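#struct-help
A.M.: can someone run this one for me? Single chain, 196 residues.
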Amino acid sequence: VGIEWVSAEPDFMGRASCALVAEGDVWLVDPVDFADLDVTIAALGTPRGVIQLLDRHNRDSAAIAKRLNVPHLVTPREIPGSPFEVVAVPAMAGWKEVALWWEATKTLVVAEAVGTPRYYCAPGCSLGVHPVLRIVRPPRVLLQFAPEHLLLGHGFGLHDGATAALTAAVSRARRELPFVLPRLFAAKRHRYPLES
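D.P.: on it. Structure tokens below:
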């Protein structure tokens, strides 16, 4: 499938990135740069594009795309030449997000709607819906998929029980809100933007 990595700073946010490898082609998703990124990508295959799944997940996407001389695709409707299906994740005004579904590997990549950091999850849960979407619009569109691999924009992905965790997180999103809010307020005290 590829690789994933989580940026150390700011640590509470768990800014996660991944590189998907399909028949020698490498697609970077919402990447945060690191020192050996280019060498790592070259070892995986030929870079084909940098995909930004959330309009405000600028991170290092543009700079990496320029450096690798590949397209920078921001919330695309489709990705020609790739095996990915692009799925719109309806949320609210000012929130534009898409997810990727890779049928051949049963991999779902989600930028922001769900995640594994502490401020996303109710106690005892491995995955949670973004705190804002718990109130506004839990991402039920994701339930059409049964992923074996769930890669995320926040927190390390799930590779065991991904479908069950996704179903539970979305179905309990509003019910768990009182347990998540204290974690969100604690995260906000770090004074970092939650959407980076």
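A.M.: thanks! Residues 143 and 167 are 6 Å apart (CA to CA).
D.P.: also worth noting: The mean pLDDT is 91.
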